Amino acid sequence: MKNSNDKASLILASASPRRKYLLEQAGLTFSVIPSSVDEDSIPVTKPEHYVKVLAEAKAGDVAEEHPACWVIGADTIVLIDGKILGKPGSRDDARGMLNRLSGKSHFVYTGYSICCREKERAFSETVQTEVVFKELSEEEIEWYVHTKEPFDKAGAYAIQGLGTFLVRRVNGSYTNVVGLPVCEVIEHLIQEGAITIGSDMNNH
User: For 54, which of 33, 99, 124, 203 is 20 to 30 Å away at the CA?
Assistant: First the structure.
């Protein structure tokens, strides 16, 4: 896949190494410019709406400084029994989250936003994935917490890392659980002409 012109006209408005990796795996050329949005200033609403508003705020923040570029913003949360699980702040937090997820089904919501100020184009959507955890023993939880992997992850696990053994089943987009619904994002970028596939499409 290629950008629609020779310039690096695509920006990921996120410092997440997982989102960066996913877009790199898809063959995209892009810059990484994290947004400076204060997430705490955005009121929590329904999960599917909340992550979309956060994604729009992040993309919009970076797009203000780079109006000619296509900017991608995203935000991911984990929801179980109506409760949003953020990133654990301590080992006890991580243990509590993993105990709550053990043997149950939960939902991962990722909101993404794609915009270009110069073209006056903006699109945002939320993708939902159901994840089912296996029953976790205390030993498994303790071992996983001590790997330190849970501490910068919503819900205290990384499905693409050591935490892969926690997951019994995924219903929906796998990359959405990692942090970005790649299929939907690329589909929209192609639709907007921001990226192309094949040399016969490079003149858009």
Answer: 99
